[in-house]
Design a protein that fits this description.
4-stranded mixed beta sheet; mainly beta; 6-stranded antiparallel barrel; 42% strand; 3 helices
Length: 173
């Protein structure tokens, strides 16, 4: 009889890569489902393993292209190999993940939003990154509330209390 004990993983999934062909002879990988922003030089591992595809790579460049995050590697890879990486996950050691930044849209999940006029407080369950602002989603009181997190509406961001205070337009009160 074996003892089944849940063990915490020593690895963190930082993103899923998607093959994108930018121009005629230039191929790129887009990061989706990002939990951490990869940094140049970071050693990453690709899972699940595939035949004829590297298992370990190093981030060469991280950039933004058409509103999404793209990555390239220090190792030289052909477009055919990049195409094979489509759908794979980049994972890093837990120790390396501790030094990485979270993308802006994940930073506020679990925080609270306070209406400066009414004092009402909602907990942020999800954040969607829109082209010009973030959209916080709260499921407080059995209903979904969408809250625009735009610079013009933010009065204060308290990192210690994990609280965002907003001045809400009268139509949202």
């Amino acid at each position: 009889m074996t003892n089944s004990v849940f063990q915490k993983s020593d690895w963190c999934d930082i993103c899923t890569v998607r093959f994108r062909k930018k121009f005629i002879n230039v191929c790129a990988l887009e990061c989706t489902d990002i939990s951490f922003v990869p940094e140049v030089g970071l050693e990453v591992f690709l899972v699940p393993p595939k035949i004829d595809v590297p298992r370990k790579l190093h981030i060469g460049k991280v950039g933004e292209f058409s509103g999404s995050l793209s990555v390239s590697f220090q190792e030289t890879l052909t477009c055919d190999v990049l195409r094979e990486l489509d759908g794979m996950h980049l994972i890093v050691s837990e120790a390396d993940a501790c030094s990485l930044k979270q993308p802006q849209n994940l930073r506020f999940v679990g925080w609270s939003v306070k209406n400066s006029k009414t004092g009402d407080i909602l907990e942020i369950d999800d954040v969607i990154e829109m082209p010009t602002q973030l959209l916080a989603i709260s499921h407080t009181g059995g209903r979904e509330t969408q809250i625009v997190l735009h610079d013009d509406l933010i009065v204060d961001i308290d990192d210690d209390k994990q609280l965002i205070t907003l001045v809400m337009p009268d139509s949202f009160i």
